[in-house]
Every structure is written in C-alpha cells, then in structure tokens.
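Our consortium's second objective concerns turning raw sequence data into structural hypotheses that experimental partners can test. To show how far this objective has progressed, the report includes one record in full. It was chosen at random from the queue rather than selected for favorable results. The single chain below, 302 residues long, was entered without modification.
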Amino acid sequence: MKKHFLRNIAICSIVLLILMSAFAGVGCVDQGEDTEDSGTTEDATGEETVSGEIGITGSTTVLPYSTLAAEEFMIQYPDTVISVKGGGSGVGIAAMIDSTTDIAQASRQIKDSEIEEANNNGVEPLEHAIAWDGIAVVVHPKNTVSELTFDQLRGIFNGSITSWADVGGEDIEITVIGRDSASGTYEYFKEEVLGEEEFTENALSLSDNGLVKEGVVGNERAIGYIGYAYLDENVKAVALDAGNGLVEATPENIKSGDYPLARQLYYYTNGEPTGLTKVYMDFVLSDAGQEIVTESGYFPIK
C-alpha cells in the first residue's frame, strides 16, 4: 500500500511540473516588440493576416475621407483598429513630430519649420498626396451676391470691405467667419487670398469646417470658407475671379485646376510606412481607396 501511495505522489509531481512548464509563458509579452502596428503576418495555416492598431490625426478637411476609409479598411481586415481624430492640420503634424500618431492628415503642405522640428526629434516626414480638394467660399442662400473677385474677397477678409453693398449686395454689415490658426485650410486660404495681409480682427475663428458652415447657415450676413466635401444646399458657393474670369466651385473646375482655390490633401508619415501603416497607405492609393475619395466629396489623386 505504501509503495503504491509513493508511486502516485511521484506521478502527480511529474504532471504538476509539466503543467507548470506549459503555463509558464502565458500572459508574457515581449516589451521590446511593437504589438500595435503589426501589419501582415501568417496564421497557423500559413495564410497571411492583417492585424494591429494605428492612429490618424489632424485636418478636419481630410477627416470625412479618413473616417470612411478607416471604416472600409476595418471591414476588410476585422483584426485591425484605425482610430481617426481631427483637430487641424497643425495638430496632426505636431502629433507626428511627437510620435503620438502614425499618420498626420493635412490640408496643407508641411512647413520648413515643422520639418526642422521633426528632424530634431528623429522624425523624417514623408508626404503622400491622397486627394484633390477645392475650398468653397460660401454665403447664405438668401444673399444676393453670387460672385466675387479676389480683390473683393481679400477686402472682405482683411476688413477693408465691411458692407455687402460694396460688392453688389444689400447695405448690411458683413459677418466674416473663418478657421483657427491650427487649420491647414486657414493657412492655405491666407496664403492664396490674403498673401502678406492679416485676417480682420472681427473675424470669427472656428475649429472645423462643419462649424463654419453652420455659422453661415444661421446668419444671412455671413461669409465663410469650407472644404468642398462640406458643401450642400444649405449654403451657396460664390464664383471666384482670380484674374482669369469667374470660375464656379464645381468638380470639373477643381479637377482641371481652373478653380483658383483647388489644392491637394495629404497624409504624412515618419519615413516610408511599414507594418499596418503601409498596408493602410496601399489601400488609400488603391482603386478602392480612391473610390472612397469620390464618395467623401473629394477627387482622386490618380
């Protein structure tokens, strides 16, 4: 009896050691490995799988596209998470410089000062043009003004023109609505329209395109500028004359470059994208990704 008892203890001890060895590594993670942007791997059957998590931050102009593209990407690749946030082009580029986002979305090109700051942080910004956009100058539908020259537009936004009567409208004061300085749309509009001049101090600065549009919708005296994707029947886009005749903000005029406020939209990455960031960037520039550009109200870069 005693021999059988000792034999059973020995067997149980061996089993216990085996179980302890098997479970010793459960829950352990290699802290030196990036487990988020994992990209393409092979599963147990040898088939390629795409998994991981990346973040996109920045321009509210690019936001509608990034949101739709991320949703479609995650449908195709269920093991991925793409988080998308706005805040403005400057916010997105700053996040890339600080390595707190994988992709910065921007409606303007990166500045030399931002490149220098990035390089000082060991970051090498790489530009990817992803779509074409046009900035629509919008007024309330009841406003009788339907066209403006660039001189008139400059006068309105620098504050030297304060009445709609001075540009062919009713004798009422103009309410100027624009974007805050973190916005790439702000930077682009200032460079193309105001040049070295400054925005009027009376301009209402808002944080995104949607708020600018709503500001114009709610004020018959207002004028603002928004990305083409935000244009709808609730506001009226005025035709612009930059010196070559009046041109309307239409898809054809934007894609041809005839519209004077046509521009490219960008993603920025730290060097050549790798892992899941590369898989997502390949998707963005694929036919499927460029179809989403059209769905979101912009125009394919290809």
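The partners drew two points from this record. Confidence is low (pLDDT under 50) at residues 1-35. The domain at 133-262 is CATH 3.40.190.10 (D-Maltodextrin-Binding Protein; domain 2). Both points have been shared with the crystallography group to help prioritize constructs.
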